[in-house]
Amino acid sequence: MGEVQIIGTGSYVPERILTNDEISKIIDTNDQWIRSRTGIGERRITTGENTSKIAAKAAINALKNASINAEDIDLIIVATTTPDCYTPSTACIVQSLIGASRAVCFDISAACSGFIYALNIAYQFLRNGAMKNALIIGGETLSKILDWNDRGTCVLFGDGAGAAVLSIGNEEGVLGNYMASDGRGSDLLKCDAAPVDINNNILRKEVLGDEVYKNSKYLSMEGKEIFKFAVKVMEETIEKLLEEAKLDLSNIDYIIPHQANLRIIDHTIKKLDIDKEKFYINLQSYGNTSAASIPIALDEMNRKGLLKKGQNILMVGFGGGLTWGGSIIKWCK
Ligand code: UT7
């Protein structure tokens, strides 16, 4: 048994940029509202690549950064709200796209907390000696489940993927993990799958009626409730993580929050009196990419050379489920 470390990161976002001004041509919104209420300036939108393709590109970049071959990966976890299909898992498709023939593959559904959950799951497999190398990916094509008639949601989200390779080494690279869920809030942020019915088991369009059928396919959100929840659990998660790792905020070099809304981040900064400079924020360029938001940010920081050996990085996420959680990692590269 050894210690678990992140040895490489990667990300990929589709080339197509969708600006606030473009959205305001198809729906009643404007750049000023979106920027002032969320901080988002633009987002990336897939033009044909499904989640597995985007995730595989992020994965290949992470493998390169980690200097590890795909055949050496024992485990692939894809965290996604927007898989290619019900079955197979997106992770299995990624496996075949990148040639990681030895890996055990599965997806997890934990919405915007997905990458944090995946990190914790992979950590457990590595820490107990069952596996040596894990590839964890947060990948989304949220544009395919957005209702482009709903200005309360469609302006917020974007597509992309981020990945990390975890491996066994000598130094302790994961200092704390925290995960929590509350299914009582499951209706606050949701996207229905195919509905079932006791009469014929499959409710088709004729049975449901056009309106219900249409609405059932798209992401819906109680924005204000999610906002209140997010502010509360950001604070809770940061405090729990610091307690578990026996650290205080002065020991943390960077905080990577889930990139949902700048106002949520600002609330946390004020509430916990944290130096804003510690927060890495890129939601202005990508919007909310759900499970991909934290690993895209981590990879950007890595590529910009911001991460130095020995630094402590706190990651914190929240989302549908409801789910929330975080990790403190020590950068060991
Ligand atoms: O990964 C986790 C996922 N989600 C989140 O973290 C989202 C959390 N929630 C939020 O970020 C915010 O609640 C939103 C950004 C979604 C909405 O901001 P808000 O300050 O809560 O606005 P609101 O829903 O109370 O709407 C205020 C007004 C309404 O108009 P009236 O009723 O005051 O006339 C809305 O119809 O703003 C209107 N509005 C818009 N106007 C222009 C809502 N969306 C838009 C829009 N453009 N896109």
From TrEMBL:
It catalyses: malonyl-[ACP] + acetyl-CoA + H(+) = 3-oxobutanoyl-[ACP] + CO2 + CoA. Residues 259-263 are annotated as: ACP-binding. Its main location: cytoplasm. The active site is at residues 112, 258, 288. The last Arg residue of the ACP-binding site is essential for the weak association between ACP/AcpP and FabH. Homodimer. Catalyzes the condensation reaction of fatty acid synthesis by the addition to an acyl acceptor of two carbons from malonyl-ACP. Catalyzes the first condensation reaction which initiates fatty acid synthesis and may therefore play a role in governing the total rate of fatty acid production. Possesses both acetoacetyl-ACP synthase and acetyl transacylase activities. Its substrate specificity determines the biosynthesis of branched-chain and/or straight-chain of fatty acids. This is Beta-ketoacyl-[acyl-carrier-protein] synthase III. The lineage of its organism: Bacteria, Bacillati, Bacillota, Clostridia, Eubacteriales.
